[in-house]
Amino acid sequence: CQDPAAERAARCLPGGFPTSPAGRVRARNAAGAIAAPDEVGALECRSPGLFSAYFGDAEATRDAMTDDGFFRTGDLGYARGDGSFVFLSRAGDVLRLSGFLVNPAEIESFIERNEAISGCQVVGVDAPSGTVPVAFVTIEAGHAFDEAGLRAACEGGLARYKVPRRFVALPEFPVTVSANGTKVQRAKLRQMAAALLRGGTVTSSGGRLDRRKARGRDGA
To answer: Residue 60: enclosing H or E segment and its boundaries?
Structure first.
């Protein structure tokens, strides 16, 4: 939950305070140490209602639980020193670009400010120089796709290492529809991006998703 007395911007951040007074959330940094307040890391949580083990699967339990009883959530975020935390993204979606951890949503949100863009998905692809971002976009009706213009805009507003290596227009994003909602198949986009950087072509299949109405991820 969020503090109802906090400013609106703070209340809108994903995350908040554990609802149980005994609940705890912390982050673990890349070095494996408990992160300092506001330091980004892998989120871990503990509460009275937390399960104790995976039934009949000791290996899965060891992978999921720390020695002191915290659950490894698989999420990236940071603790704020007052008992609350901020969720950033699923750890598997985070890109390591030029040595920095980057939430792809930061790049996506910037690109979506362009009036010609109705939606954007950014994925990372391995290249000889390291991981590079590739942006897939859908285009608003009545607008044309302008890869050079999108690149110029990103170069003017993002750090150089965050500028996508390529921009690709799709009629729609490949998605999976399930009981949990419609989610973009990011694994499929990564395959498409890798093929593109190898000199191949990109084709799209799957259902339609309006990113301004739904921003789900499958974390694959």
So the answer is: helix 58-64
